[in-house]
Specification:
The complex is a heterodimer of chains A (about 220) and B (about 250). Chain A is an all-alpha fold. Chain A has ten helices and no strands. The radius of gyration of chain A is 18 Å and the shape is elongated. The longest helix of chain B is centred in the first third of the chain and has 33 residues, at about 10-45.
Chain lengths: ~220, ~250
């Protein structure tokens, strides 16, 4: 367990020392969301129904942006090989790194999401559900994204390839997250969507660390 | 009693000539079944009382959609075997299956939109089955792109294996989430629990066409896996011997 804490603390410290990286992702998120009213028009009756979907698509894209940093720096300076060689279970180390990644990118997204939702005319419960959904959904994005980042480690054009591999796999998160807000707005209640999202989170949490570990071993073979 | 060596054809050197001998037969079977299936589809099957003549595209559309999903599972199965047992041939098979699977997915989407135009009045609707078929196409393309991006063939095989397995677990989740999201597609025409809601002769036409697609897939995959083996093993002694015999 101490290795888990040490890795988590180290990764968070690295993020803190390079705050600009994490902030860039947030700014990217806000810009993508702000582009939509400019593209489709500022009519509130048009923006309200698409608000949740836009925020979720932007969250999906922003999570891609930061994925390359998950393993690339450690791969470049050899830290990753040391982690692989250590007697500690690799899936646990992966989990620590993904948790640090989520704290650095997922939680800020969840904090900004209600602000952006307000720009689209979402109110009250819908904003709460949007934030809760992003909080539940972004760890899934980080976990599934880690599989893609590990598979494409050190490949040319890896950035683009990750998008191609990961975006189709993340479609259920988008559907459930945006669906939760829609269900709240139409008065159905978001419990079903959020429960399924939480179930998906548990399943990914149990499965993906092993897939990431296998992919890392393949990439560093 | 001679002991049968079950793994004899697991080696590329023995499988290569076997594949070469087999695939013309499968092409022949595909041709015969295709002629029979299309004859049933165009001349024997009656006109549908609701959909008129336009429904006849079902004889291509449904078998293509079946094959697209089935081939993904077969591909993931081969990729998984290659990953677990480290057998070269299994991964080569997975590599050979992917383009055919993508082709059938594309075919199912295309014929579906041709069918949708007269039936629904539009080429494309964001319905659950169409959308998940589109996502399946993206998964195939992702698998091929990942393998194409990795220069070392063994690393490519294994990375593709992990991706195919993760994808195969995800396919039902994607399917149900998309289905829940929206649905407009007509319900399944064929159901295991109740009698099919179509004329028996239509069902026969579809089954024959499905068999034709099976045979075609096997033929194409066998001939493609020959190419993959030849490319990978170009320095192997057995292949150079074979090449010198031919020339």
């Amino acid at each position: 367990m101490s290795m888990f804490q040490a890795l988590l603390r180290r990764d968070l410290l690295l993020v803190y020392r390079r705050r600009a990286d994490a902030i860039t992702v947030l700014v990217f998120f806000s810009i993508v969301v702000s582009l939509f009213p400019l593209g489709v028009g500022a009519d509130p009756t048009l923006l309200r129904p698409i608000g949740a979907g836009v925020v979720w698509v932007a969250a999906l894209l922003s999570s891609l942006l930061s994925l390359q940093r998950l393993f690339a720096a450690d791969h470049a300076d050899g830290t990753l090989e040391q982690i692989l060689l250590s007697p500690q279970p690799l899936p646990l180390a992966v989990l620590a790194k993904v948790l640090a990644h989520w704290i650095a990118t997922g939680i800020p997204l969840a904090l900004v999401a209600p602000l952006l939702g307000m720009q689209f005319g979402l109110t009250g419960d819908a904003l709460l559900v949007l934030t809760g959904g992003v909080l539940l959904g972004t760890p899934i994005l980080s976990l599934v994204g880690a599989v893609g980042a590990a598979l494409t480690l050190g490949l040319r054009g890896g950035n683009l390839l990750v998008a191609l591999l990961i975006l189709p796999l993340n479609i259920p998160v988008l559907i459930l997250g945006a669906g939760a807000v829609d269900a709240t707005q139409s008065g159905l209640g978001a419990e079903a969507h959020l429960s399924l999202l939480a179930a998906l989170l548990i399943a990914t949490l149990l499965g993906t660390p092993f897939a990431v570990a296998a992919a890392l071993r393949i990439s560093l073979d | 009693m001679a002991k049968i060596n079950w793994f004899k054809y697991a080696a590329p050197a023995t499988f290569y000539p076997l594949a070469g001998r087999l695939y013309p037969w499968f092409y022949g079977l595909a041709l015969v079944l295709g002629v029979i299936g299309l004859y049933i589809g165009f001349f024997v099957a009656p006109t549908d009382f609701q959909q008129g003549e336009a429904y006849r595209i079902i004889f291509i559309h449904v078998p293509a959609a079946w094959m697209s999903m089935f081939l993904y599972l077969v591909m993931a199965g081969y990729a998984g075997i290659g990953l677990v047992f480290n057998t070269r041939l299994s991964s080569m098979m997975a590599r050979a299956i992917a383009p055919t699977g993508a082709l059938f997915t594309f075919l199912a989407l295309w014929t579906g939109s041709m069918w949708g135009r007269p039936m629904w009045g539009t080429y494309w609707v964001w319905d659950a089955r169409l959308t998940s078929e589109l996502i399946l196409l993206f998964l195939y393309i992702g698998f091929m792109a990942l393998q194409a991006a990795i220069d070392d063939p063994r690393r490519g095989d294994r990375a593709g294996g992990v991706l195919a397995l993760v994808g195969a677990i995800n396919v039902p989740i994607i399917y149900f989430s998309v289905k829940w999201w929206n649905t407009l597609h007509q319900g399944s025409s064929i159901n295991l629990t109740k009698a099919p809601s179509m004329a028996a002769i239509m069902l026969w036409g579809m089954l024959v066409m499905a068999l034709c697609f099976w045979m075609y897939s096997i033929a194409v995959i066998l001939s493609r896996v020959q190419c993959v083996i030849a490319e990978r093993e170009k320095r192997a002694a057995w292949l150079q011997e074979l090449a010198s015999e031919v020339s």
